[in-house]
What does this fold into?
Amino acid sequence: MAYEPKTVGRCPNCDEVITRDWLLIEYESDGRPARFAECPDCRNVVHPSAE
Ligand SMILES: [Zn+2]
It folds into this structure.
């Protein structure tokens, strides 16, 4: 079974770890994956920073 990371990164505003449950959309931009997620702590829609 392939390993699926449970987290998508950290909130750039408050440094909270964001899990896949909060992922809103995932797409490719210039061949690189880009994501939007809602932060479970500050409730902003952010680009999670990769860990
Ligand atoms: Zn946050």
The two ends are 22 Å apart (CA to CA).
